# Entry
Amino acid sequence: MRVRFWNSVLILCLLGTASSPILRGQVVVKPDPAKLQAFQASLDDITTAYGKLPKNHLALLDGHTHAVQLAKAFPKVAPTISKSMSVREFKMAVAEADPNLATVNDRSHDLDFSAYALYTQSETSTARCGNQVVVGFNDSGSEFETLFFNGGQSFSGAAVSNDGGRTFQDIGFINPGPNFTNFVIGDPVLMCTDSSTFYFVQLITFRDSSSIPQSGVAISTSTDGGNTWGDPVVAVNKFVSKLAGGFLQLGHFLDKNWAAIDPSNPSRIYISYTDFDDSGQSPGCGNVVRTAIEVVVSNDGGQTFSTPIIVDEQCGDNVGVQASHVAVNSHGVAYMAWERFTPTAVEMRATHLNSNGTAAPSVRVDQKVLGGDTFAVCGPFTCSVETDLQGEFRDLVGLDLAVDRSGGPDDGTVYVTWDDGRNKSVPDLLGFDAGLGIPPNTGQLLVPGFTALILTAGNYAYTDVLVSKSRDGVHFGPSIQVNSDRQPKIGGGHDHFQPAVATDPTGTVAICWYDRRNDPQNLQVERFCAESKNGSEWNNFRVPISPFAPIHRLDFAIAINYMGDYDGLTSDFTGKSTGFIGAFEWMSSGMNPDVKAFKFD
# Structure
């Protein structure tokens, strides 16, 4: 009989961890004015360049959107928190900083159970080596908690288990390093090589020695099982913007990082990412904007990295690539999968890296049908595209990749999983988002007094979880549905979204995802997993959590259409233990995003 351990990873609300010095009673605190100034400058750098990106690329960009949202509120709260204040006063100041709220009543205790700010933990990644397990996650409270410590700012937190994932200890924010201009902004990917050595990969922004803002991907190392972390090391960085000839030259945003360790050589680390390149200096695209999937490689345990290897690049603002994942087989071959957006389709692409450090030609795994409603968000001059699931949150990265490293008969098999809306689509008469909901085919009518109009594509596509496998990473078989329920023939359907995949030392493959099959109205969210011995037949089972509604748009430090983009699943990297463990977002108390972990064999 299957044994499952249901673990609470953390309840990390408000301003960070209960063990933090600033949360012990009414301690009087005051941040360094130079640090506040550096943080504001970092937000300004991001916001200025962000606003000049092509609209369609804005719809694909992820990590930096939280910083842009925070930038709207920070100027209002900064003058208050620059003074000496108690924690109670600090909480009140933050609660009142939401730009969409006016102060009516005394909110001094609101953040004790806040629906306003600094309570969101989501977008998790899990690493396991033996009995040591570390979960990393995006944490909005860390942004303000780190204002009161020497060094940079952090959007990331973590929790550690030394009993195989049965219990966890929240360790607070991830060290952003001593540089005041550092801002580690999440999208965590965690890895390990043994029970002591763990890696935390995430996005970072900073200013270089010439004060030019940089966008990059950083890697932090822990040598004590994830309990403490060294300063982040920048694996790759490119300028966000700079003055050239008296004019502002736009540059790059690096986004949606992923990472993997070579099991045949644990000192070799691969980090992939998307380059949103508006510099007009790309050899492949000339002066045209581009997006590119790139990867850098370290052969010394994350101390230094190679120059970027271009895996796929698309030129122009009506095409794009996003969401690369990387995995390495038992013989040291690195495989990658990502999404390519064309004017007519979304393709799941895959490739591997050659021994000479180049990327092999990519192949199409399958064509993806985006789920939910597709909206055209139109302002006075332009329109951009946004795809939302029911509940008005985006499902940007419904994708994952794993490689069998068991040494058994399926060793080397590559698995790519994603969510897909091909099986059921129904008319949707009205679409509501950040502006005015109007019927389809109304046209781009601009109404005085409205900042945006929303045009829906007229249909809602319900998503299923699909998987395709390949013995060689080149020839992929037919896509197979993983979730065991079928979309009803009459009426509405059910969404299954954001799958994560892993293989264990026995060659078993598992996939976990968010699931709405048990709600006739397709709103309440549950968690389901499935296991397979061959990648073709899948045994579904429900994770024992209470269903929750997709509550979001409550935390002013988080992008308004965000409810997490992915949650990882892993097995024991050392191969000493079988089974799987994965953390995920769960709405406790009906509104508060926390993190849980589920372990199963």
In short: Residues 1-233+570-601 form one domain. The first helix runs from residue 33 to 50. The first strand starts at residue 4 and ends at 10. The CA atoms of residues 282 and 484 lie 46 Å apart.
